Structure prediction request, 162 residues.
Amino acid sequence: MPDFLDALLTTADRVQLANTREVLAAVLHESGLAWRCRNDACAIENAEERSHCTRCGYDRSGRPMGDLTPSRYGVPARKWSALRRALTAFFKEQGVEAPTAVAFRSESDGGWATAEVFIYYGGRRTAHEKFQRGSAVWEALEAPTRFEKPVHCEPMRVALPH
Ligand SMILES: [Zn+2]
Prediction:
């Protein structure tokens, strides 16, 4: 959620007029400036331009953030599972909470191991350093690359189990 929406709703909480937050959320929703997360456990308002809920990562249709495989790919399920396991193990070894998903965006045809890396916690995306050459994740990224090298700026996303 952009800062101004956060600020509006936080202000609504602070002034504590009856139902202010609900009224403001309804106005944002009706005006098309926000959409409500369909995850019942979350249900926050999200800015219109967001594709995923900032808190929980569900998409606008109410589905959890899932895998995004390049369209022409035929990577076998076991290779895809190996990549998911390597990523999960990486974050466990780092001693940090596994992100909701790890996304890759290739700037060249060099392969997925050299692609830009982003991590999602809910719908919040941040850049992440690339994985070291020779690491388990690097090796797991070579498997999909062998099937077909990524196209410029093509996205790929691996959802991690929680
Ligand atoms: Zn949500």
In short: The two ends are 23 Å apart (CA to CA). Residues 37, 39, 42, 44, 53, 55-56, 58 surround zinc ion (CB under 6 Å). The mean pLDDT is 88. The first helix runs from residue 3 to 15.
